Amino acid sequence: MQRIKFIDKMAQxxxxxRDMLKSAGAFGVGALALPNFAYGAEPLTVMExxxxxxxxxxxxxxxxxxxxxxxxFSSEEEALAKILAGYAADIMHPCNDTVxxxxxxxLVTPLxxxxxxxxxxxxxxxxxxxxxxxxxxxxxxxxxxxxxSIAYRPDLVSEAFKADPSWSIFFDDSYxxxxxxxxxxxxxxxxxxxxxxxxxxxxxxxxxxxxAAAKEWGVKAIDNSRFMxxxxxxxxxALASGEIVAAYAWNDLVKNLHADGVPVEYARPKEGxxxxxxxxxxxxxxxxxxxxxxxFIDAWLSPETGKYLIESLGYGHANQKSFAAADPAAVAAMxxxxxxxxxxSSIVFRPLSDEVQVEQAxxxxxxxxLKL
Amino acid sequence: xxYKTTAKAGPRRDLxxxxxxxxxxxxxxxxxxxxxxxxxxxxxxLVTLSFWTQNGFELDRSFTLANYWxxxxxSADPTVWFGIPFYLDYPVPAILMIKSLTMSLVxxxxxxxxxxxxxxxxAFRVTxxxxxxxxxxxxxxxxxxxxxxxxxxxxxxxxxxxxSGLIYVxxxxxxxxxxxxxxxxxxxxxxxxxxxxxxxPIYVSLEKIDRSLLEAASxxxxxxWRRFRRITLPLSxxxxxxxxxxxxxxxxxxxVTPELVGxxxxxxxxxxxxxxxxxxxxxxxxxxxxxTMMAVITLLVLIFLTLVGYWRMRARRA
Lengths: 372, 318
What we know:
The complex is a heterodimer of chains A (372) and B (318). Chain A is α/β, with parallel strands linked by helices and 372 residues long.
């Protein structure tokens, strides 16, 4: 992601005085120009993942209405807690496995798809994927999709791993302190998959089985991880320096590190590669103008945004036209560009019931706390 | 007549007293209002919240001690942490409290050990430009706390200053990995970040010591060490004690330092409270944990102060 890259470069001292001044200037000009866009209603407030606050991702909106207010979150549960505590946001960017939490909390306004000009170009399969529909209402406009897998340094891992990549690297004592999992209860599920279970068997594990799995696999993942990452730039820097040799990662990390000339590969683990589908949800807590909110969502669905997602992050996009618009080389580098075949060849994250979600988060928190 | 004058003088005097009182409260009021709105009310809200329970997305507002009971509910099956068995059903808060208290205690001792010589130097050796020296020692305060923690990350990191330096000198081949992401890193960072807070109170109490007492001790044959132990150290105790409380109390609940340099093993009680309020979506439990932590710290400080008072009394009698 652009912003993170700039910060990395700054940290490494690679930014020239001119670039620095240019960025500083752009920031200053942006800050000055902001009030000009304020019109009538309150400005839009959008809850986003770090990096997605870059104007390139919603250019058609930015051109007309400027920059909305952003609130950056690192996990959907954190965003949910913030909204429940009274934070007024208009738009949230959850994923198909987490949007249900917002629906059950009564925070979501169903989308009127007729107000989205790009809706007809969306891959039909994405319109009916688990989580997008709630009682026949569209609660999330699918926008970006990508994978979760292992990013590793081919120069620093064993040949055996390269020949047959497996999630077991996170539980292997010979890699102790040289890997990093994401800070998420999902580490327990992956552990169970390493033990031979399938994702569908264990994704909604709870009760005593969960407690036992946490003791066996959760503790191991925590012990072996150098740190449990919460920010993508943190894990990116650690892989670049060689501090860690493998990490749970999204596609953009590989793309970013390649751009910096770091040798890094994205594995297709034998237990499976995960696919996530994320999108934009209209919240009922917002104070902004609803027409502006629809414009913002529509901008995210535009082929321009898709082209940028594909070319700069290596992510997929929900709009079929994005793939035609993007650089063919970038599309080819992605491997699979069709969400249907992607879903068939990988494991799609599935939503959890509220109780199980809360329980898994609690057990994960306790498991981490007990580590010395 | 006389009846009338007393009747007149009475209320007038009352009025004068009232006015004086009002003036007193008026002078106090900015601080008082601030204390009530920014400290007393939030704590009251926290206490109230801790007696409620979270039920899914809803807050159950009926009074209950369930949150507190959960923290001390015994269990026959112990959870072993660091060799200590905890016979608790939900041992996480207890364990993290003990861990946080231990880490803060170590950090406090480190801070005092670092700050005392600095303050001593300032009080007894520096004769000119004292103000300049004091300003120099407070320079770390000129940057934000977050930046100071981050700079420790750069110092202790895999490619950090210490590792690169040692590799350059040729003492080690591969970077040392035990420097960052563990409780030691948290303690080092805390110790550095709070030293400047401790120097000033210790300096003030050292500065106040009557130099003629030191001369008398030397004249009567005390060695330097004995003089320090019998005169300087006891007389600087008030400042040193104040400094240790000043460091100990805030560091126990620190959140940002363990979050940034603590890694998987360096979590403290503050992280748990944050998780309760945010990702675990159980604000009442978080409130109960913070209230308990507050009570535990208060209790420890009271015990500490009582012991100090007792020692003093005994020393005076002897």
